[in-house]
Amino acid sequence: MANIADFRLIAKKRLPGGVFDYVDGAAEDEVIYRRNESAFHQWEFMPSMLRDVGSIDTSTTLLGTPLPYPLICAPTGFTRIVEPGGELSVARAAEAHHIPYPLSSVATRSIEEVAAASSGRKWFQVYVWKDRGLVKDLVDRAASAGYEALCITVNLAVAGRRERDVRRGMTMPPKLGIDTLLDGLRKSAWTWRFLRADPISFANVAGTAERDGSTALSLSEFIGEQFDPSLSWSDPARFRSMWNGPIVVKGIQSVDDARRALDHGVDAIALSNHEGRQLDGAPTAIDLVAPVADAVGGSIEIICDGGIRRGLGILKTVALGATAGMIGRPYLYGLGAAGEQDVDWVLNFFEDGLKRTMALCGVTSIRDVTPELLHKR
């Protein structure tokens, strides 16, 4: 295996079809899913030659804390359907690389389990659910467990139509129905691990509500009942009243909303179309970086989420004005291929690729990267 595309193919071979499609699929015609990655190719480097590149410094800071290279693991839900270690495996790999890992509200390991397994940088990703009391309870638990930042996802007021999941009749947590068992006969290693592991549940909400996520239910039904279409710009201020640390707003998709986030005092924004899983027709994150950076003038940190598949993608996001990039599917492909060791491989792949690309471009420090490094084809 040489790159992320290879890991994707291995994961596709090893995982049941419904599980792989949940990880790999996107909304409706999946146009933006494809464009998220292809949009990076319209930006070309303008390398400088005859530079001493014997020493490469990829370090930067994010939310006032040193970061060895500008990358974050994205929050992903239901991670244990890919591999039993799930969120614990990702958290440990992220800790080894000293990069942040935001735990999803709909994780299959709890806030406390992940905190016990990893002393690395952990954020907590939160949705604005109708049950505001439940949300406050989750936020309070994250604070008590020592999580560094709160990451509010704002582009899921209603669910996107993910038609691969519709065709599969996908449920979360997955039920071992006839179709799953038949598919599992061809994916025996995954099935054996699934049967031997603890039952999968919405670990952060299990036991806290009438419908607590401890039994299988329709993903669309859960989203339809819990996610709140009344989500508005009053919500970040409400979170500020219950959270003392940094706040990141994830799901910004316009320059105007980036300005609003700045006006509402958040510490960072993640430009994200949810990896194409919500609105099929949204802008790509890489195309938003430069205009957003121009609009906010360095007053707020910018994270680019979506389409990064190599270290050169990280360098492009930084050159356009982002503080860091964010990846989700790449580490899930690694997790599906061979568990925690391949999550570590994926993160090494991005770090090594960033260093190599910087050397080939004649750039020795991430702090020296400027928009002049790129040309739009």
Walkthrough of the structure:
This protein is an alpha/beta fold and 377 residues long. The protein has one domain (4-376): Aldolase class I (TIM Barrel). The chain is 43% helix and 14% strand. It contains 16 helices and 14 strands. It has helices at residues 4-14, 17-24, 31-38, 86-97, 111-117, 132-144, 163-168, 178-186, 188-196, 219-226, 234-242, 255-263, 285-296, 311-320, 329-338, 340-361; strands spanning 43-45, 60-62, 65-67, 71-73, 101-103, 122-126, 149-153, 171-172, 217-218, 247-252, 268-272, 301-305, 324-327, 374-376. An eight-stranded parallel beta sheet has the order 4-13-12-11-10-7-6-5. A two-stranded antiparallel ribbon has the order 1-14. α4 runs parallel beside α16, α8 packs across α9 (188-196) and α12 (255-263) packs across α13. The longest helix is centred in the last third of the chain and has 22 residues, at 340-361. The chain is globular, with a radius of gyration of 20 Å. It starts with a helix and ends with a strand.
CATH architecture descriptor name: Alpha-Beta Barrel
Q: Which stretches of 5+ consecutive residues score pLDDT under 50? A: none
The overall number of domains is 1
Residue-averaged pLDDT, rounded? 91
Q: Work out the helicity level.
A: 40-55%
What's the overall geometry?
globular
DSSP strand tally: 14
H/E series: HHHEEEEHEHEHEHEHHEHHEHEHEHEHHE
Per CATH, the superfamily is: Aldolase class I
Return the CATH topology.
TIM Barrel
Widest beta sheet: strand line-up? 4-13-12-11-10-7-6-5
Radius of gyration: 20 Å
Structural category is alpha/beta
Q: Summarize the biggest pleated sheet.
A: 8 strands, parallel
Strand content: 5-15%
CATH class: Alpha Beta
Q: Measure the end-to-end span.
A: 30 Å
Tally of helical segments? 16
